[in-house]
Amino acid sequence: MRDNEFEFIRGLVYERSRINLGQDKRELVSTRLGKRLRATNSPSLGDYCRLLQSPGAEEELGNLIDVISTNHTFFFREQAHFDFMRDTALPALTARLRNERWPRIQIWSAASSSGEEAYSIAITLATHLPQTPWHIEGTDISHRILAAAKRAVYNEDTARNLPDSVVRNHFQRGFGPQEGQIRVRPALRERVNFSHLNLLKGEPAFREPFQIIFCRNVMIYFDRPTQQELIARLTRRLVPGGYLFVGHSESLTSINHTLCSIRPAIYQRPLGS
Ligand SMILES: C[S@@+](CC[C@H](N)C(=O)[O-])C[C@H]1O[C@@H](n2cnc3c(N)ncnc32)[C@H](O)[C@@H]1O
Fold first, then answer.
1. Which residue owns the Cα nearest ligand 1 atom 27?
2. What is the number of the ligand 1 atom nearest to the C-alpha of 140?
3. Positive or negative torsion for Cα 11, 17, 20, 25
């Protein structure tokens, strides 16, 4: 990959998603772009870069972000967050529900990838808050991955670490041509909504604030000013006393913010702020 091609792709990806591709990502970019060269019948990377500059390249720009962004995720990733939610956050928040006149507990999975995070939250709420109204929003920049999240069909292997009772209660097993696949049951699916959102562009159309936001394993791809902007945006969407969960490798120590750090990778908007 030539320097000018890498710089062009790097600039476009930053402008579109704010994902910051360092020089160490050159090899990765080159491998991932191979797929797009084949899909668009571009004989060389130079041709592909020209295609991206042509009028009507909008759809291909989306495909570019899709192949560059890393969608790796799994059910109950970073279990400590789900334990904290069950033992501390949900009891504190449900106790406030009536006084605050919140219509329901609202949780946002703000870089949801293929939905495992949002459905893990849903399973936790269905299990521990059977009588409380709740709703989950999942958003991501990738249209392709959002389609998978809405379908909610997963390989059985992805659930191998889940207790049998969770699989039985919350998933349907496929048979015939769907053998080896599981699908989240409709009762959960209908309480989780997925929509497209670039976290750094425009304002999300949510009307209600959130009691909990999961924004995990996406900030690592952003530079420091972008991380700071993102945390300010998320903070505005939290109720006072609401919680923000970030990935365990994503500390907020080097950026300015107004949140209280209460556990590793768990932050709280101060009450009264
Ligand atoms: C590694 S996955 C994290 C999934 C899940 N939160 C977890 O921790 O398992 C990162 C996700 O962030 C999404 N993403 C990257 N840049 C984004 C942006 N600017 N706005 C919204 N989503 C973005 C990617 O498409 C990808 O699905």
1. 113
2. 22
3. negative
Q: Which of 113, 143, 150, 197 to mutate to test the pocket of ligand 1 (most atoms within 8 A of CB)?
A: 113
Residue 194 has pLDDT above 90, yes or no: yes
Report domain 79-268's class.
alpha beta
In whole angstroms, what is the distance from residue 65 CA to residue 205 CA? Answer: 22
- Report if pTM > 0.85: yes
Helices (H), the chain: 3-17, 26-39, 45-53, 58-68, 79-84, 90-100, 116-128, 143-151, 164-170, 186-189, 224-236
Strand 266-268 with 260-263, pairing: antiparallel
Measured from the CB, is residue 117 less than 6 Å from ligand 1? yes
**Residue 222: which pLDDT band, with cuts at 50, 70 and 90?**
very high
Q: Determine phi and psi for 149, rounding to 5 degrees.
A: -60, -40
The domain limits of the chain are: 3-68, 79-268
CA 126/CA 111 separation, integer angstroms: 21
At 272, is the pLDDT very low, low, confident or very high (cuts 50, 70, 90)?
confident
Name every residue whose Cβ is closer than 8 Å to that of residue 211 and which is 6 or more positions away in sequence: 89, 93, 102, 105, 106, 107, 238, 239, 242, 243
**pLDDT at 98 > cutoff 90:** no
Its CATH class, for the domain covering 3-68, is mainly alpha
Which pLDDT value is given to residue 267? 98
So which residues are the catalytic ones?
32, 140
Q: How far is CA 36 from CA 33, 42, 97, 107, 270, in A?
A: 5, 8, 48, 35, 46
